[in-house]
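Following up on my earlier thread - several people asked me to post the actual chain instead of describing it. Fair enough. Here it is, all 204 residues.
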Amino acid sequence: MNGTIHFTDVSFGFSTRPVLRNTTFRVSQGSRAVLSGPSGSGKSTVLNLIAGYLTPSSGEIAAPGRVSYVFQDDTLFSKLTSVENVSFALAESGLTQRQTRYRAEAALGAMGVEHLGSEQVVLLSGGERQRVRLAQSLVADPDVLLLDEPTSALDPATAAAVMHAIDAAFTATLIVVSHDPHLADNLIDPELFTLSGLEVIHAA
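Reply from S.P.:
Thanks for posting it. Predicted structure:
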C-alpha cells in the first residue's frame, strides 16, 4: 500500500477567483494531517484535488489510486440499515452476499457500532451515523482517507470518541479538514502533524 501524497507548486481557482497558489506539501504514508483555517481558505479544495474531483490549473499532484472521501454532508440512505449502507461500498467487489455482509459487519465492529447493523439509519444519532459512514469507508480498504469536517455536528465527547475510533481503525493516510482547534488532540498517532503553512488566498 502506498498512501504518500505529494503536492508540488499547485495552483487552483474558480473562474477569476484564485483559491490556491503555488501550494507544496507532502503527507507520508500512514500519517495523520489536519488542514485548518478560516472558511474559503482552500481546505476542502485540497481534498477535492487529492480525490481527483478537481484538476489543478498548474502544478502536480501525486496520490494513490484508492482514495476514500467522507463528505461533510450525510450521504447515507436513511431507510436502509447500517449494514446495508456499508455493504454498498462493496457492490462491485465480486464478493458473495455472505462475504459482503461479513466484511460490512466487521467494519461496523471496528467503529464500535456492530450492534446497530440491523437498525435503520434514520433511527440513529448523529454520532452513530458518522461511525456508520466511516465504516463504509473502512470496508473499502483505502490507501488514503479524506474527512471533511467529520465532527462538526457532534458534541465534544462524541467528537473525541469518533476521532479515537478513526485513529484506531484506519491504517491509511488520514487527512482531516476541520475548524475544531482541539480535533488534533483526539488523534493518538505520535507522528501527527498539522498542515498550517499552506499558502492560500482567502476568498473575497
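The beta strands are 5-14, 17-27, 32-35, 58-62, 67-70, 144-148, 173-177, 193-195. That should answer part of your original question.
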